C-alpha cells in the first residue's frame, strides 16, 4: 500500500507535458521561407521590357521608311521599263524600226515582277505599322521576313536577267551574231538601264529589310 501511494504521489508531482499532434498520413514538415523582394524584381523586369520595346519600335520605324522607299523604287523601275520605247525617224514602205519592252520576254517579265513586288511592299506597310504599335509582337515580323525573302529573290532574278539583255544591247555578242543596238536606239537603252538599276536598288533594300527583321527576331528570342 505504501509503495502504491508513493507511486501515485510521484505521478502527481510530475508536470503534465502536451505533445504536439502529428498530421496522420502526411508527415510533412512545413518550412516557411523568408519573404523575397518581388516588387524590386518585377520593377527591374518591367524596365528591361520597356527598354527592349523602345529600340524595337525604332527598328520598326526604320523598317517602315525603308519599305516605303523600296516600294517607290520597284514601281518606278516597272513604270520606267513599261514606258520606254523608241522609234527611229527613218522607215521603209514595209518596215518601221522601233524598240519596246514587249519585244523581249525578259523585259516583259521584268515589268510584271517589279509591279508585283511594288504592290506587295505597299500592302505590307500596315504590317510594318503593327510592328511599330506592338514592337514585341513576333508573328507580323515573322510574316514580313518570309515574304520579303521571296520578293527579294524574285526582284534579283528579274533584275539580273534584264541586266544581261541590256549588256548585250550595249555591247553585242560576236559569237552569237548579236549586234549592239544601242547606237541606234540610244534612248531606249538608257531607259532600260535606269530601270534595271532601280530594280537592283529595290532588291538591295529588300535584302536589308530581311537582315533587319532577322536581327529583331534574334534579339526577341
Question: Can you characterise this structure?
Answer:
The chain has 221 residues and is mainly α. Helices cover 70% and strands 5% of the residues. The chain is built from six helices and two strands, in the order H-H-E-E-H-H-H-H. The protein has a two-stranded antiparallel ribbon with strand order 1-2. A hairpin with a 4-residue loop joins strand 1 (85-91) and strand 2 (96-100). It starts with a helix and ends with a helix. The model is unreliable at 1-7 and 29-35 (pLDDT under 50).
Major β-sheet annotation: 2 strands, antiparallel
**Ends apart, CA distance between termini:** 87 Å
Helix/strand structural class: mainly alpha
Shape: elongated
- Percent of residues in beta strands? 5-15%
The neighbouring-strand order within the major sheet is 1-2
What secondary-structure arrangement, pairings included, does this model have?
Blueprint: H1 2-13, H2 38-83, E1 85-91, E2 96-100, H3 105-123, H4 125-133, H5 139-171, H6 186-220
Antiparallel strand pairs: 1-2
Helix pairs in contact: 2-3, 2-4, 2-6, 3-5, 5-6
Name a few traits of the molecule.
221 residues; mainly alpha; disordered N terminus; two-stranded antiparallel sheet
Amino acid at each position: 500500500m505504501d509503495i502504491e501511494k508513493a507511486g501515485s504521489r510521484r505521478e502527481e508531482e510530475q508536470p503534465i507535458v502536451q505533445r504536439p499532434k502529428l498530421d496522420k498520413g502526411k508527415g510533412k514538415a512545413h518550412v516557411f521561407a523568408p519573404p523575397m523582394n518581388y516588387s524590386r524584381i518585377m520593377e527591374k523586369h518591367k524596365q528591361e521590357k520597356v527598354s527592349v520595346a523602345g529600340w524595337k519600335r525604332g527598328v520598326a520605324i526604320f523598317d517602315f521608311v525603308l519599305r516605303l522607299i523600296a516600294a517607290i523604287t520597284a514601281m518606278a523601275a516597272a513604270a520606267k521599263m513599261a514606258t520606254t520605247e523608241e522609234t527611229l525617224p527613218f522607215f521603209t514602205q514595209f518596215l518601221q524600226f522601233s524598240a519596246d519592252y514587249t519585244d523581249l520576254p525578259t523585259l516583259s517579265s521584268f515589268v510584271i515582277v517589279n509591279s508585283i513586288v511594288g504592290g506587295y511592299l505597299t500592302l505590307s506597310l500596315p504590317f510594318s505599322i503593327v510592328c511599330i504599335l506592338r514592337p514585341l509582337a513576333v508573328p507580323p515580323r515573322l510574316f514580313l521576313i518570309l515574304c520579303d525573302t521571296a520578293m527579294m529573290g524574285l526582284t534579283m532574278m528579274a533584275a539580273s536577267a534584264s541586266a544581261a539583255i541590256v549588256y548585250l544591247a550595249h555591247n553585242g555578242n560576236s559569237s552569237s551574231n548579236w549586234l549592239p543596238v544601242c547606237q541606234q536606239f540610244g534612248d531606249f537603252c538608257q531607259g532600260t538601264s535606269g530601270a534595271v538599276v532601280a530594280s537592283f536598288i529595290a532588291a538591295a533594300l529588300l535584302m536589308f529589310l530581311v537582315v533587319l527583321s532577322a536581327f529583331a527576331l534574334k534579339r526577341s528570342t
